[in-house]
Amino acid sequence: MKSEVNYELYPYKLLTKYFLKNNYITAETMYSVEEVPARILINANRIDIMAKWIYIDALERGINTDWAKEVYIKHIEAFSEGSFIEPGTEEKNSIDAYLQIFRELIKDIKKRGFDENISLIPVGAGDILLDGSHRTSIAAYYNYNIKIIRFEGLTRDYGTDFFKRRLLYETYLDELVFQYTFLKENIYAACVWPVANEALKKDIAVKEIESIGKIVYKREFDLGYKGLRNFMVQIYGHQTWTGTIYDKHSGVMSKVDACYKKKKKVFVIFFECDNFEIVLQVKRKIRDLFGMENHSIHISDNYLETRYISQLLLNPNSFHHLCFGNPDKHVCINEKLEEFKSNLYRHCFNLQDFVIVSDSVLAIYGLRDAENLEFLSSTGYCRMNPVQKNTAYQKHVMDLYGCTIEDMLYNSRNYFIYNGIKFASLKRIRYMKKNRGLKADRLDIGIIFFTLLSEIRFNFIQKYHLIRCRYFCYKRKYAWPFCIFKLLCENIMK
Questions:
Q1: pLDDT tens-digit readout, 163-185
Q2: Which of 111, 210, 324, 338 has CA 20 to 30 A from 9's CA?
Q3: Is residue 110 part of a domain?
Q4: Is the residue at 306 inside a domain?
Q5: What is the pLDDT of residues 11-59, one digit of tens each?
């Protein structure tokens, strides 16, 4: 008969009684204690770490935490099936308690580092985190080492499929995976084009990819013909066969025609693999099975391309621009963008620290041309050259755009990506023009409104079923009226 552990002895005293009992840890259970970099525990099986990371990052950068807090709350809601109670931790009995304890933990670990005398982090086979996700997330963000206790016979799977089963909206899952792609260098994106997106063929692609690596996320994207064309211009645009802005990338059209199929979506698989040669072999194998030459599937060549694909598809503003934008319409704005990028590279500026604003956003949507290229940056604002940041201008930006420069630059809800450059979202531009109140802005506000109507309609339909399922699942009273009310609040009243 196996003997129970003594909760007062090391290392068991540094683990929770709930964890020990729930995982049937006995005095005979084999373990090892090690010190490791916390970041090796960031794993697709624990995608929930990204929700904590997003919140920590917002606090650290000093940006508006509303979106980060929303992501954090929604993932805890899914985790706890709506109860906001953590088994074995009596003090975590509400979302306010979760947030308060988390913020205090962030301050403590940031100041003192990870204290191995207070706790150990239990880890299972394959460096899968078993418990202590909040502590691990903080230590990983600040790149600390932590003490772990390894139980090789245990594992966890709180990946994207787990949260799908718990009815977490794709909006939040997209954000978690979006952040994950920026932390992993062995991640790829496989895009199964609409012409090959059939149940059997999708299953074949998934099984082939599963045989060489870990699948992080599977998702379908309804780009339509226009969105697929814009997407291909973005991922293939550096190749000569696509054409240029002067011929509106005419070379892409034959590729779109070969890959597009009406009422079919782009099926995207984000996966991890440590050997690029094996990735190429699988890509060739899938293409041979489909018998469509190069028109069945595209797989990114490196993690930089993967990140770019995630920026285009997993950022809702970028996705809207793909589906409803016409970036090739005005040649002038594209010429200015190329000049802008060249100037930044020449002066060793980071492209991620700049965001295009004002009429330039309308121009890249193809709504109307713009005379000047205007932008915000962490150093200040001007039309073509950075200036020194000052407090007065920071307040001016906040009054005009309704957020700080840091929010515009680093909060993904406020920008979209085109040609590797950040652009303020249409909602931010509409907010700015309403505040500015110029006569010339009135027409622009109307144009933006009708452009956004497409997004409102899309989101309304997309979220309806999940909201209905969620609130019936949690047995909320008056679920149907609440579903309608929530849809209106989330989409129309923004």
A1: 999 999 999 999 999 999 999 99
A2: 111
A3: yes
A4: yes
A5: 999 999 999 999 999 989 999 999 999 999 999 999 999 999 999 999 9
pTM: 0.88
Question: Residues 428, 473: one domain?
Answer: no
- How much is the average pLDDT of 395-413? 85
- Is 324 contained in some domain? no
Report which residue type is found at 359.
D
DSSP string over 235-298: HHTTSGGG--GGGTSTTHHHHHHHH--TT--EEEEEEE-S-HHHHHHHHHHHHHHHT-TTSSEE
User: pLDDT for 311-324, tens place per residue?
Assistant: 999 999 999 999 99
**Residue 248 is part of which domain span?**
184-314
pLDDT tens digits along 292-307: 888 999 999 999 999 9
The structural domain count of the chain equals 4
In degrees, rounded to 5, the angle at the alpha carbon of residue 298 between the alpha carbons of residues 297 and 302 is: 150
**What confidence tier does 461 reach under pLDDT thresholds 50, 70, 90?**
very low
Residues 6+ apart with CB under 8 A from 31: 11, 149, 150, 151
Task: Looking at the structure, tell me whether residues 33 and 149 fall in a common domain.
Answer: yes
Rama region for 249: left / alpha / beta (φ>0; ψ in -120 to 50; rest): left
Same domain, 190 and 309: yes
End-to-end CA distance of the chain: 61
Phi then psi for 47, rounded to 5 degrees? Answer: -65, -20
At residue 435, what is the residue type? N
| CA separation, residue 233 to residues 133, 188, 332 (Å) | 39, 19, 18
Measured distance CA(307)–CA(352) in Å, rounded: 13
Q: Which pLDDT score, from 0 to 100, does residue 277 have? A: 95
* Residue 121 pLDDT grade (very low, low, confident, very high; cuts 50, 70, 90): very high
More confident residue, 85 or 37: 37
Q: Distances in Å between the alpha carbon of 107 and those of 1, 53, 55, 56, 138? A: 44, 14, 13, 10, 9
Nearest to 148 by CA among 255, 43, 295: 43
Q: Residues with Cβ < 8 Å from 411, sequence gap 6 or more?
A: 58, 63, 64, 67, 403
| Higher-confidence position of 394 and 60 | 60
Give the separation between CA 130 and CA 48, rounded to whole angstroms. 12
- Same domain, residue pair 119 and 192: no
3-state secondary structure (DSSP) of residue 325: coil
Average pLDDT over residues 372-393: 59
Asked if residue 190 and residue 140 are part of one domain, the reply reads no
In the sheet with 145-150, reading across from the earlier edge strand, the strands are 32-37, 145-150, 121-123
